[in-house]
Amino acid sequence: MPPFIAYWAIIAGLALLGALVLVGSPSWPCERWRPVFAAALARGIGYTVHSEWLNTTVRQGWAYSPLMPVMPGHAPGDDEDDADQTTSPIERVDLRISTMGSRVSALKEIKPVLATLYCALSDDQKKKADQLLIGMGSMM
């Protein structure tokens, strides 16, 4: 499975989990599926847009390939697109170390939030979360 599909599944799972906690009910999905769907969609899109901006503009830990679609209004610079042709192997290793450091920082930021959310769940909700988020620690 390509890594980006795993990331999408993680984002979708967390968005759904957050939506269920915020607006769900014990009879979900038979009832209140529309508010849960709307909240999950908003949270998923919101997180994706924020993460895209944070990692490409602020942290500059991600670089685009010429084949990758970009968000409207964002045009990666030539230096990002041509990084593989214009940098030495040592510079590319340094870039990879920086990128991995950014990922570690992002995981450290999300861990306390996830822990707080998970601890607030009932036992039944935790069982559902455990099923939805299987493999989360190893896929990120």
Topology order in helix (H) and strand (E) letters: HHHHHHH
Shape: elongated
Counted by DSSP, the helix tally is: 7
Q: Describe the main β-sheet briefly.
A: none
Helix residue percentage:
over 70%
Please describe what this structure looks like:
With 140 residues, this protein is mostly helical. The chain has one domain (3-64, 76-139). It is 72% helix and 0% strand. The protein is built from seven helices and no strands. The protein has helices at 3-23, 33-58, 78-81, 83-86, 89-120, 123-132, 136-139. Helix 1 (3-23) crosses helix 2. It is elongated. The two termini are 14 Å apart. 9% of the residues are buried.
Keywords:
mainly alpha, 7 helices, 72% helix, elongated
Question: How are the SSEs ordered, and which strands pair?
Answer:
Elements: H1 3-23, H2 33-58, H3 78-81, H4 83-86, H5 89-120, H6 123-132, H7 136-139
Helix pairs in contact: 1-2
